[in-house]
């Protein structure tokens, strides 16, 4: 257990292992994404109320789910960095933030595009969209704080504290926004009954959620590898790697 | 070296800043009765070392620092509030190391040459007087270990001599001092020199 | 010369912060002045129709209270950081958790408490029904305490940065949102004659959680900032 922890703390080892994971995970992810998209967009029946426009959930829902999970990944990496002073956790946290923010942004944009045919307007202060917007703010706050520090070690720790604070707050924010929406919900906007989703629509959705998790992992690993190289640019193993033309 | 527990022990301390090694493998022990002066040119890392010793810097270095005694650290900034009088600055000090009565504060302020200034708002005092308010804490302190970063800055000659006498009194009474200064101490006491590059010089 | 007990020290810090604030009264007056001026902006922007103002009043009052709290929280640790007092606080043998609470308590007393006390005046200017003033004050009393706790997290994380002002808003505003939701809901409930108690209870629950956890984050943030 401890040797594993120790190895995790070693940049060359992490760089190597992430490379070999990516070698099979990346093709698999792309395959799953392609399958899920084709299945969801072409081979499922149109919704009886929304027609074809509902198909955007195959992007919207997975992006939203993984964006939220990404925040927890970031916060946990931050906690590991604070508690065990593990530098690689700092690299992971730093790398997770922009990916999570991008996924949140995708969820927001697809939500807006979905809103146009469904509700007749690009933006509705719906509970989920509002929560997603706040999540985006939380992500951007972490990124802004990181960039504001000159001392990157301090930046990592400050962001770790901030993302932990955010992690405690996310359930509170989600619950309060949910409640706020149910209080103010105008009668003209009806919630689409997603709880009664048909299995033929559900399976490609589950596949897409899985694929997005894998995509997040791939992006995280690739981001971490780039971050590792730039942080360790002056060390021997990076020099060797560069001389050998990138083959590890 | 005595066998008693050192007040402060440093083991293979190394620090790198901006890709430059400031010191490496620094090891020393500070025992009761030691008066250390840290040597080094500007930018050598003296202040960084003092902050590590005090416990303000907690990462970015490798090595061990063991603190076995309450310490008093005086840094570059005086920590004196302009809106408070010298008396209030000491009585309400944020370090929380003691509760001082007027009977304790007044002699301490008198000793640093601030007799008559006890209740003047500190923003009316000069920079040197601000430093002196801070130095009055040394007279009040019962911490055995003093870490003083450039304590002589902005202090006049008479003040320096007085402070040197105080340091000697402190180490003779079983305390210890680690300080940085660019001027040589004029004291009749064994001063140990600590070079950031070469470690303890004897 | 024994060291003071933690509670005595906490009270000493509180006293120190309050003396510092009282000696610069403009710092106490500024948030109130800000409150008054922004209140005046809304009728100019929304139109003077009393009914319309009254219906927006709970939200308006709460947002202004939130903003004036936010703008003042940046300064909580700033001067102590600049003059070196913060270093001494962190080296103190006293529990930092309680010391931090003293700073927050002082901040709340000179912003949140005063805002809550003068809020009825502004509520009347915005035509908030008199029946809702009680719950406005109660919700502000509870809510601004939560805001102070959260705001100090941002203050602690950004105190070492040259330009913390804008950044602190980006970090802290998302965390303020639940407080805003329940604070203004309490006032709105009172306006329509519904019980405001449940919302106040929720604000109280948030306050308990924030008192328990926020000082930990603030203490960690201060240690990081002093080290950067």
* Residue runs with pLDDT of under 50 for 5 or more positions of chain B: none
Instruction: Give me the CATH architecture of the domain at 1-69 and 145-154 and 173-202 in chain B, please.
Output: 3-Layer(aba) Sandwich
Structural class of chain A: mainly alpha
Give a count of the beta strands of chain A, DSSP E runs of length 2 or more. Answer: 0
Report the biggest beta sheet of chain B as strand number plus sense, adding barrel if it closes: 6 strands, mixed
Taking Cα atoms only, what radius of gyration of chain B do you get, to the nearest Å?
A: 17 Å
User: CATH superfamily membership of the domain at 1-69 and 145-154 and 173-202 in chain B, which one?
Assistant: P-loop containing nucleotide triphosphate hydrolases
Describe this structure as you would to a colleague.
The complex is a heterotrimer of chains A (248), B (202) and C (228). With 248 residues, chain A is mainly α. Chain A contains eight helices and no strands. In chain A, helix 3 (57-84) crosses helix 6 (152-184) and helix 4 (87-119) packs antiparallel against helix 5. Chain A starts with a helix and ends in a 5-residue tail after the last helix. Chain B has helices spanning 46-54, 86-91, 102-111, 127-140, 157-172, and strands spanning 8-17, 20-30, 35-39, 61-67, 71-74, 145-149, 176-180, 192-195, 199-201. Chain B has a domain at 1-69 and 145-154 and 173-202: Rossmann fold, CATH 3.40.50. Chain C is an all-alpha fold. Chain C has one domain (6-227). Chain C has helices spanning 6-23, 25-46, 50-73, 78-83, 85-91, 96-110, 112-125, 133-158, 165-191, 197-227. The longest helix of chain C has 31 residues, at 197-227. The mean pLDDT of chain C is 91. The chains are: A mainly alpha (248), B alpha/beta (202), C mainly alpha (228). Chains B and C meet through loops of B and helix 1, helix 4, helix 5 and helix 10 of C.
